[in-house]
Amino acid sequence: MAVIINGKNIADSIKEELKEKIEKLKLQTGITPKLSVILVGDNPASCSYVKGKEKACREAGIISNTVKFSSEASEKEIIQAIEKLNTDDENHGILVQLPLPKNLNENKIINSVNPEKDVDGLHVNTMGKLLKGMKTKFYPCTPMGVVELILSTGMALEGKEVVVVGRSNIVGKPLALMLLEKNATVTICHSKTKDLKGVCSRADILVAAVGRSGMIKSDWIKKGATVIDVGINRVDGKLVGDVDFENVKEMAGYISPVPGGVGPMTIAMLLKNTFISAAGSA
After folding, report:
1. Angle (nearest 5°) at CA 66 between 104 and 210
2. Model confidence over 80-95: pLDDT tens digits?
3. Is the pTM of this model over 0.90?
4. Active site includes 53?
5. Which of 199, 206, 247 is nearest to 230 (CA)?
6. Which residues take part in binding NADP(+) (predicted)?
7. Has 41 been labeled as part of a binding site?
8. What is residue 281's predicted lDDT score, i.e. its pLDDT?
9. For the purposes of burial, counting CB atoms within 10 Å of the CB of 58, is it exposed (0-12), middle (13-18) or buried (19 or more)?
10. How far is CA 35 from its chain centroid?
């Protein structure tokens, strides 16, 4: 049976360390890190995520500022607000809560964020640096959280065969690039992949990030593999992942649960990026 990778405990440890660093930054420089979140519309999941981020900021000593817009807001209004935050020296991080209403151009809005304040790591400049293997100030939060979970097992990524199921701009693509930088052999799978089960069964490390509950079955898993579940799906009022957890844990060596796996790590990485931005402005 697999060892459960407790993302909440790992995230709590990271947040405690950050809290100490933030206190030190305040004492030495008078700077308090500040994160602004752009929230458009009233998507219940987005509102819940933003509340979680606000709570985590308070606990770490980061000022949290949520800028709310109705779902009818124009791109111009949203971008004007972002541009104001871009030039505010007391604001260190800007995050655009996704998804945005379908009438808005997601890329245009994300790329209006100053790359120096792109604490979500989704700006085209950040992605371009990842592609070229260049160091970047910020790394995308969820992929960075996934990498931290893998490394927490003590496993070295070099030479490992990693399969990432899902090719989104938020998780799959940047994660694949980050794993390549650590000399893993990476395969990205998607809806057109032939013999998905066969590809997954080769993986030393399998990352599921598709948004389909219970898609990854136990007979897709190589015995002893590490399985990281990024999926968040609501089934019968409960949060579940993309992995058939109860059965897959019998095959895997390590596995992350949903909830309590990648989710807390994503928020911890966001706080870390916000601190890095604030410390860099000192």
Report:
1. 55
2. 999 999 999 999 999 9
3. yes
4. yes
5. 206
6. 166-168, 232
7. no
8. 81
9. exposed
10. 16
